[in-house]
Specification:
Strand 9 and strand 10 form a beta hairpin. The chain contains nine helices and 21 strands. By secondary structure, the protein is of the alpha+beta class. 29% of the residues lie in helices and 28% in strands. The longest helix is centred in the middle third of the chain and has 24 residues. The strands form four sheets. Strands 4, 5, 6, 7, 8 and 13 form a six-stranded antiparallel β-sheet that branches. Strands 16-17-18-19-21-20 form a six-stranded mixed β-sheet, covered by helices on one side.
Length: 391
Amino acid sequence: MSEEILINVTPRETRVAVIENGALQETAIERASRRGLVGNIYMGKIVRVLPGMQAAFVEIGLERAAFLHMSDIVSYQNEEEPELEITHQHECITELLSEGQTLAVQVTKDPIGSKGARLTTRISLPSRYLVFMPDFDHVGVSQRIEDEEERERLRVMVEQEASEGHGGYIVRTAAEGSEAKDILANFHYLKKYWKKIQAKIKSAKPGDMIHEDLPLYLRAFRDWVSSDTEKVRIDSQEAYQKALIFIKEFIPNLEGRLEYYTSDRPLFDFYNVEDEIQKALQRKVQLKSGGHLVIDQTEAMTTIDVNTGAFVGHRNLEETIFKTNLESASAIARQLRLRNLGGIIIIDFIDMNDEEHKRQVLRALEKALSRDHSKNKISEVSSLGLVEMTR
């Protein structure tokens, strides 16, 4: 599998594209005017404590004071591992906080309308495979990883590296099946980054931003680059220099894969990314054989209909249907990643009579989705020829 990551940086927005075997598989976009605050860490100052609400308002240098609930001070729950929780016995928030007090806080929800940002004191730093939590002394594994042998492999691997009393880790769902070297690279990145944040906390004043979550072009290195990635091409000299500094400090094994794109032809045009993005916005997706997919999104689910279209085959109807379904399995997996479709997805393959054909189409879909970073679950082909899945 040949994989390249393209990063297009302009003053208004940053776009990232993942190319596998010459075909666009995933895209992400971040507009400069709409960057969120989630993940940012600030030195906050308590401006008001509300015992009746068991909450406090915290000044962190934004237009409106942020909101900190008692549950976000005394306990921590991570969506990857709900079973992990720290609890201290305090009956009232006034036992924990007082006006004028300063403390490091992390944004968990962006401001909405007249409401300020939501905060927590339980800081967490994510990477692609791990989440580091300074207030824990435990290694947990995402409950979404169901294979017990894999859970144990991941747990033991991280426990061997983690130092007792120096924070805990959650192994994320994306780590399932990943190589040890990729996971350990994440581990060392987080360890270095936390030391840098600790130094800033010591000297920070109320309202100071201690840590801003990485911009998209750096998050691509943190979350998307793997051992399969051959090259990462950036078309901005400034972003290239910053990326070079970032990987030298935190992920030195990636240094040789970074490349500054200097051609006059736009990066995304050269790799036909612009055309693929436009096609991804269309309801109908053409297959190379002449068949096509029809993708419809509703609030409840996404439906994908497979059609033979202009493909008439060379042997018989059953073989034509089988080849169309087989080709559509790979195309569907690509479209799910490209459009970032989630929730319930119903795939209406063309009806097949041969049970072996049904099995092969389902396996082809599973194989194509194996490289998807998002967790997915696929059912068997129903009597109506439908496949239900979640992503």
